[in-house]
């Protein structure tokens, strides 16, 4: 059986934790999914109209996290770290049941999701993987921010830059090749906020579950978390993690090259909506090992696909 076929989780796993913004305690169960069904969310606290598909077009809010809604207005929020873990691990099909509206934040990174999925393992199906290949460049410019996507041969490259006035965060830039690089640092990087913004967030009804256990808090030149940073580029690496999760809302793995400066959930969503507006911007193909270029067969390079 080809390692380039679709995969699901071997057995159901349950993860419990608090939601970053709602503060609700949530129990989340990741169940195996049938080939070609993709990732589907189900709200078990509701009796009907409770399935929500993570799609670029179902994104209903991008304020500090990504929220998706179905046609009945039923939501699931803060899906991006979980989806990034699934993207990187190559988990293509799963039914995710939640008894509340927000995915648990865990430690603020994708680490716990990765550890739990890996400890259960993946099952390979007999259906080939599907990819979206970018054929034309698309650019979204907003004031000093931008995100753009270009063609690439077989890779998904993400080149991200952040610029903060805060001297400790400052300007950070990093580039990853999602199917080839070791993404441990990206997956382990936590969400962050400035100490002076906490009051504003709480007044806006956000970050009710936020604490030093699930976010890096920066006050001037100081990090308030005892453990400090997990890696030198943790801030920008977390933005790359968010970007991977948001890209998974395309439905399939992407082949393209992304460059972003000071973007986030909203800009990534705008970019993907623009890409999918015009069919000549992309193509969809199935990977058959026989038809792959020689360089792509090198499975040691295919960490996430394989
Ligand atoms: Zn995030």
What are the defining features of this structure?
alpha+beta; binds zinc ion; 7-stranded mixed beta sheet; disordered C terminus; 5-stranded mixed beta sheet; 306 residues; single chain; 7 helices; 20 strands
Describe the structure.
By secondary structure, the protein is an alpha+beta fold. Helix content is 20%, strand content 33%. β7 (67-69) and β8 form a beta hairpin. The longest helix is centred in the C-terminal third of the chain and has 14 residues, at 234-247. Residues 293-306 have low confidence and may be disordered. The site of zinc ion has 5 residues, from α1 and α5.
- End-to-end distance, in Å? 11 Å
Overall mean pLDDT score? 93
Helix residue percentage: 10-25%
Low-confidence stretches: 293-306
Order of helices and strands: EEEEEEEEHEHEEEEEEHEHEEHEHEH
Q: Provide the list of bound ligands, each named once.
A: zinc ion
Structural class: alpha+beta
Shape verdict? globular
Kindly report the oligomeric state of this protein.
Answer: single chain
Let me know the number of strands.
20
* Helix count from the secondary structure assignment: 7
Q: Kindly provide the radius of gyration, computed on alpha-carbon positions and rounded to a whole number of angstroms.
A: 19 Å
Main sheet makeup = 7 strands, mixed
Percent range for β-strand residues: 25-35%
């Amino acid at each position: 059986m080809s390692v380039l076929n679709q995969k699901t989780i071997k057995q159901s796993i349950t993860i419990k934790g608090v939601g970053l913004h709602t503060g609700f305690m949530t129990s989340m169960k990741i169940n195996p999914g049938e080939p070609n069904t993709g990732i589907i969310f189900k709200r078990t606290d509701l009796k009907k109209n409770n399935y929500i598909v993570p799609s670029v077009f179902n994104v209903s809010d991008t304020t500090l996290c990504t929220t998706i809604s179905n046609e009945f207005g039923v939501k699931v929020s803060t899906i991006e770290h979980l989806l990034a873990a699934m993207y990187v691990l190559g988990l293509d099909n799963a039914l995710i049941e939640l008894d509340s509206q927000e995915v648990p934040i865990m430690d603020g990174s994708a680490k716990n999701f990765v550890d739990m999925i890996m400890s259960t393992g993946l099952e390979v199906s007999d259906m080939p993987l599907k990819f979206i290949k970018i054929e034309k460049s698309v650019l979204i410019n907003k004031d000093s921010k931008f995100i753009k996507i270009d063609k690439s041969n077989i890779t998904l490259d993400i080149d991200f830059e952040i610029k903060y006035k805060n001297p400790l965060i400052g300007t950070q830039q990093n580039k990853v090749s999602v199917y080839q690089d070791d993404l441990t640092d990206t997956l382990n990087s936590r969400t962050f906020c400035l100490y002076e913004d906490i009051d504003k967030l709480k007044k806006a009804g956000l970050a009710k579950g936020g604490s030093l256990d699930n976010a890096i808090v920066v006050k001037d030149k100081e990090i308030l978390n005892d453990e400090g940073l997990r890696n030198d580029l943790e801030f920008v690496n977390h933005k790359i993690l968010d970007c991977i999760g948001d890209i998974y809302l395309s439905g399939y793995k992407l082949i393209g090259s992304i460059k972003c400066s000071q973007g986030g959930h909203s800009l990534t969503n705008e970019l993907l909506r623009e890409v999918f507006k015009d069919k000549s911007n992309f193509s969809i193909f199935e990977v058959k090992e026989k038809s792959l270029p020689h360089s792509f067969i090198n499975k040691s390079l295919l960490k996430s696909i394989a």
